[in-house]
Amino acid sequence: MKALICYNPFSGKQNFEKHLNYVIKRLKTKYDEVKVYRSLYEKTITTYIKGFGNNFDLIIVVGGDGSLNEAINGLMTLVKRPPLAYIPMGTVNDVGHLLKLKKNIRGVLNIILKGKTTKMDVGKIEDRYFAYGCGIGKFTNVSYDVSMKLKKKFGRLAYFIEAAKHLQTTEKMNLKIYCNDEEISEDFYVVLILNSARVAGFRPHRVIKPKLNDGIFDLTLVSKAMMRLSIYNLLLFFLFGEHYKKGLKYRKMTTCRIVSEEEIPYNVDGEYAFSKKEVTIEVIKEAISIIVNEKVLKKYFI
């Protein structure tokens, strides 16, 4: 059997390479061949998996949520998709937290070698795929606006520092959202489509408990009603989630269409995707196979 390691050398504290020989040694207790691909720049993991992913029985991606997103976009082009494993090495690691994967190489390798393979949903927006989240509006550009230098120096705190710069701005989006045979037309400040309780290190969902293979994502709409009360109400939403209810709308969705008057930048899995006036977002049920531990399997999968 063959395993592929795709890693981003620039993720997080940029120290994975010192663990590489140990990771290869552990993987060779189960796999006959272990190949390593070092990402050269953005989207090269996607390109490599598109070209060579069919040659492997397991693909391991090492990096942050952006690196995982690249791997999923490569996997989704393959007819036969090998299982995916994830070693989180980024600054925030939303998916790593969701799957209870700590920045502990030994522990994560134990899961990869002994864990359970299960199916997981994937989101699609136009021709792009995402693992856990898509967003537009206030704060949703924080994850890619914050500098690498700031992330390396302050870690997760860097995202809060960047978010603070946006507190006094009052951008709003006039949107028409078509979801579940319903049309919602209103001014919104944030729109989130999530299969996770976390996004960019924040926990906007404290009550909603996602299931990662039920074919349903959560649509959260933050309306102008919240901003009329106070700009800080939006911050309170990110701090306390659904416990702070003012100006919020929630929907369960399998597909939705968003139409705006102007081009809006869309964020997927913490990375800038594109700017468009109209997009269609859908959930692809059980699109990929992923390795998780028994506890996560029971908690987040049905």
Sheet with the most strands?
9 strands, antiparallel
Our count of helices gives 11
CATH class category name of the largest domain: Mainly Beta
Tally of extended strands? 13
Radius of gyration based on Cα positions: 19 Å
Indicate the structural class.
Answer: alpha+beta
Distance between the termini: 29 Å
* Average pLDDT reading: 84
CATH second-level architecture of the largest domain: Sandwich
Q: What's the helical proportion of residues?
A: 25-40%
Entry keywords:
alpha+beta; 11 helices; four-stranded parallel β-sheet; 302 residues; nine-stranded antiparallel β-sheet; single chain; 28% helix; Rossmann fold; 2 domains; Tumour Suppressor Smad4
Structural topology:
Blueprint: E1 2-7, H1 20-27, E2 33-38, H2 44-52, E3 58-63, H3 65-75, E4 84-88, H4 94-98, H5 105-114, E5 116-125, E6 128-130, E7 133-137, H6 142-145, H7 148-154, H8 157-164, E8 173-179, E9 182-194, E10 217-223, H9 224-229, H10 231-240, E11 248-253, E12 255-268, E13 271-292, H11 294-300
Parallel strand pairs: 1-2, 1-3, 3-4
Antiparallel strand pairs: 5-6, 5-13, 7-9, 7-12, 8-9, 8-12, 9-10, 10-11, 12-13
Helix pairs in contact: 2-3
